Amino acid sequence: MPSATRRHRQRLADMTGLQNLATTTTTTDPQGAYRDLQERWGVVAPVELEPGIHAWLVMGHHEICQVVRNEQLFSRDPNNWRLFSEGVVAADSGLGPMMFPRDNAYFADGEKHRRLRGPIDDGLESLDEHRMARFIRATCVDLLREFESQGKADLVADYAAVVPMLTVAGFFGIGREQGHELRAALIALFSSAEDSQPAAHQLERILSGVMTARRNAPTDDLTTAFLRHANLRNDFEIQQSIVLMISAGYETTTTWIAQTLRLMLTDSRFAGRMRGGRLGIDDALDEVLWRDPPMSNMPARYALVDCELGGAHVQRGDAIILGLSSANNDPRVHTDDAWLEVGNRSHLAWSAGPHACPAQRPGRMITRIAVDTALHRLHDVTLAIPADDVMLLPSPWTRCPASLPVRFTPPLPS
């Protein structure tokens, strides 16, 4: 047995006191938390998801690519998760919405994955990008007009969370009022806390109502398209496919916008390069994807055989979490030289392999327009609280600012 594996097994002899995964997302220094894990365990570390529920956190760029590109060894189907199939994970666990089986592409492999992803790819391909850009820009301007005369706002609650909500929900014909209900449900769902399962059920109830309405009165939205798509065999697959597209599209885009705005407000180097024109908007967005990607830790893959991964002995049925934020800091693919990194898109913010995010283009469009519009319409904007007081929404998966209270100079009366 290789000495590295032998040492790793020796360390695993005592699994008490493992670091909870959420410590990597709730800390002010996530890369420091990842480094601590790597110093103790290496690039693949055991972590606790909730008391008594362990998983492997993969933090190396190469090792994550090894996992996501090999469906024969690492499955996306939670039915292969030993702790789930043996009933060790409680049926009402807060991990359920993110890690229990669902009939959508996220939780499927091979042919089933391709069948269920087809409607998503087709739906995204059908979007009119020019029409979409006009809608997003008009939405951003309307939202800013609602508060810009006041000279203060919360750029998360009043803006970053609303733009993608109205856009992504709008793809499916969901209006603003129900969009707010969706946002509340999604915040709870991504928290993986005690209220995550009731939130998931509330999300499903909203979408079932929308499906019923579109079945009775079809329109040109994606709900109608999903109802008609031959790949989706029943209402549950339709509903769960919409759940996937809305939850992934909304949460990741909100986080991307909010983290970009946070950096503009708290990092003078980043803000100066943007406002001075030395950093184009797309390069700025890429820098955020490197530094604080929308999904810090992505659940999950499940080992189909006993294997060695990054020096760790992974057993069949073990859960594997992708530490995307850590992998983006891997010195094998990323340097600290901002000039060398311009144009470098080898980050794993969108994962890789068959399950790579299919909505990168619309996600970037929403984020680019939202950030650019705020940058040009809000004058002398400053954070209204100390940078260290910016709180994050509780989640082991994401690092979205909960609030960004700001002050700015109102426009002169016209």
TrEMBL record:
One Gene Ontology molecular-function label: iron ion binding
CDD domains assigned to the protein according to its UniProt record, in alphabetical order: CYP_unk
Superkingdom of the organism of origin: Bacteria
Gene3D superfamilies cross-referenced by the UniProt entry: Cytochrome P450
Entry similarity comment: Belongs to the cytochrome P450 family.
Official protein name in the record: Cytochrome P450
Top-level taxonomy: Bacteria, Bacillati, Actinomycetota, Actinomycetes, Pseudonocardiales
